[in-house]
Design goal:
alpha+beta, four-stranded antiparallel beta sheet, 3 helices, elongated
Length: 222
Amino acid sequence: MRNRVADSYLASHDGFSLLELMISATLVVMILGGMLPLLTGGQNMYEAQSADMSIRQGARVALDKITREMRLAGYSIDNVAQVFTIASGTSVQFAADIDDGAPEAPCDASFETAANGGAERLTYTVTGTNLWRSVDCWNGTTWTSEISSQLLIADLKTGQTVFRYFDAAGNQMTGTLSSDNRDAIRSVAIQLDLEDTSYSHLGDQEHSTYQIASQVEVHNLQ
């Protein structure tokens, strides 16, 4: 009697059968297979949001720099004939003493003299999806390139008008701006339309887009 009870107890605790293990493994695979798309989608969304944040932060920094320097257009440039020398929808060039005579880079002490005037010439140019910055230094006679093609933004939407120009009355100045037209510039509108093509987003939006803008009053020409 005791042997029968013991045999029955041991038989009921022998573990899982092969069939039970196969069924359990199949269920685990099905569950993991259903979770994998969710985990992958979550990872893709995280990477896309991180890329968006990086683009937005970079755009803000670039726009702040352009705005700050352009606001000084015409400042302390007695030895320079004209402030704006290029003014188009995708390129702007202007002169200003952006460092207020300091002998640090990009224009060192040899440029920052009373004879030379210490002026810098800033150029912002769009080519394709890139926005570039260049800086020239005035030596009293000619401009010397000190910073050439510094990349500020690499995610612009192609074909956009970045710079728009306005006169003292607030009228937009269109077409090719002549030398006289450029002398009449009193404010510049800057609009950056950005597009992140690195990651496709969920839903019906193919790529992330972002727009940031600024209106710059050229105080030294008022």
